[in-house]
Amino acid sequence: MEPDILELESFLPYRLYRLADTVSREFSRIYKERHGLTRPEWRTLSGLGERGTMTATELGEQSAMHKTKVSRAVAELERRHWLTRMPDEKDRRVEHLVLTKAGLAAYREMVPLAKAFERELLARLNAEERAAIAKGVAALEGVISPS
User: Fold this and answer.
1) How does DSSP classify residue 64?
2) Count of CB atoms within 10 A of residue 78's CB?
3) What average pLDDT does this structure show over 51-72?
4) I need a labelling partner for 117 at 20 to 30 A (CA). Which of 26, 29, 130, 145 fits?
5) What's the pLDDT at 19?
6) Is the separation of the CB atoms in 49 and 88 below 8 Å?
7) Could you tell me what percentage of the chain is helix, strand and coil, using 3-state DSSP and rounding each to the nearest 5?
8) Contact 59/97 with Cβ under 8 angstroms?
9) How close are the terminal C-alpha atoms of the chain, in Å?
10) Residue 25: how many CA atoms within 13 Å on its side-chain side?
């Protein structure tokens, strides 16, 4: 008896991965052109821009990045003088990461570009499709817990 075949093109996890990767790559052109950032660097910059101060562990959890990618992104943004590390007063093993004025300026420059990208992406869909996407994504997020 022949085993069942998994058709990747119709397998939902694969389709979601491919779609997310394609959208992410399309958006990455904007911050790569503007600032020469990699995807992990952008995620780090945007996480800190949104939340203010975070640890590398918190960044990894928030952005779903492996700790080595976070570490490299932090090192590069620090090299650019876009972030600084502050030791934790209670636990010297922990460092709090915060954007510098230059990092915050880059983040603030990128926010309207990111919002415009999202608007343009969603404008490719009609109102019913936009509502269905929002509802479907929220439903999946509600039943799948992050690891």
Assistant:
1) T
2) 15
3) 93
4) 145
5) 96
6) no
7) 70, 10, 25
8) yes
9) 36
10) 6
Phi, psi of 112 (to 5 degrees): -65, -30
Contact 60, 74 (CB under 8 A): no
Count of C-beta atoms within a 10 Å radius of residue 51: 13
Using CA atoms in the order 68, 18, 46, 84, what is the torsion angle rounded to 10 degrees?
10
The number of residues making up the chain comes to 147
Q: Whole-model pTM?
A: 0.86
Q: How many helices (H) and strands (E) does the chain have?
A: 6, 3
pLDDT at 91: 86
Tokens of 1: 């008896």
Residue 130 burial by Cβ neighbours in a 10 Å radius (0-12, 13-18, 19+): middle
Tens digit of each residue's pLDDT (9 = 90 or more) over 69-81: 999 999 999 999 9
Q: Which residue has the tokens 């008896």?
A: 1
